[in-house]
């Protein structure tokens, strides 16, 4: 079993599908957002001898009236840093957690690894020869992995079976801090940006993210020797760098100051012990797609011009509502370093 140190480089969001509604199960005050179990808030109101309105808007108003007292009571599930003056009365999308502590799931990491391996097989890269030789069907063609431009992957059983023997743990024993970011979907081509103001703020989301510069650990176990007589994932780091490093370098050129990586930050593509991954929601359909082979639909695209959009993270208020590239970060970049094999 190999242990890896994972460093979060840019805001990371692993979604649960749950959201928190302002002045219902979410309260904002003093640079923080507080998340609550709504049943505990009901118990709080009952403890005050107050009634519970059936009308939802009246219930929210009652909770808002008790806001300061509720916050002082320490009933919250999580207290999250928030630099925005307003969340525009939009819900906050929750990051996945365990025992109310934010985590990074092994499945999200494994999914990013799987995409890199698929790319390597598609390119017939020498790094993935053991994986290729382990496939029963040696023909690598698009319909085995993605039909048309649907969002859903349609991986066949032959390809899926390889990953039965790759075990990736959730983040281990770490208290990860989260922060509220706004997901901003914008056109990358600046010729189209002058008309973007209204749409940018119309479709934004408030997102709980694991913030940058934090570290956690995961275990990765290659059990493939049981089935194939060899460790077919032995070049995992090299395969991931082959796929992700070029995309990372392009974004690092644009967002160097905000990455705060330092001038000496460099990764060797042939390193098997240090590699990059891009994981989580909003990490970009473009990065997960393979030219003429696998397509992940951009859900925000309404026309062909919109296909050149990308979702970025904004961490605080901006003065210029149209041009604010310097305040944006790409989602989901992490650095993986082997610490024990």
TrEMBL record:
This subunit might be involved in maturation of a crRNA intermediate to its mature form. GO terms for biological process: defense response to virus. Signal peptide: none annotated. Belongs to the CRISPR-associated Csm5 family. It comes from Malaciobacter marinus. PANTHER family: CRISPR SYSTEM CMS PROTEIN CSM5. Residues 5-261 form the CRISPR type III-associated protein domain. It comes from the Bacteria. This is CRISPR system Cms protein Csm5. One of its GO terms (molecular function) is RNA binding. Keywords: Antiviral defense, RNA-binding. Pfam families: RAMPs. InterPro entries: CRISPR-assoc_Csm5, RAMP_III_fam.
